[in-house]
Amino acid sequence: MIYLYFFGRYTQQEIGEIYGSCRSTAWHHIHSALKMLHKEMEVLSHGET
To answer: What is the radius of gyration, based on Cα positions, of the chain?
Structure first.
């Protein structure tokens, strides 16, 4: 979903249709994935000097 949203430039509505869900479900998955990526980046950045 992240790839479709940012690189494929699909709308949340279009992504929902591709996955057989509604727009809000697609938004929830995108938002959750971004939060996970953000946390991972924080962990990685604290490990480097």
So the answer is: 13
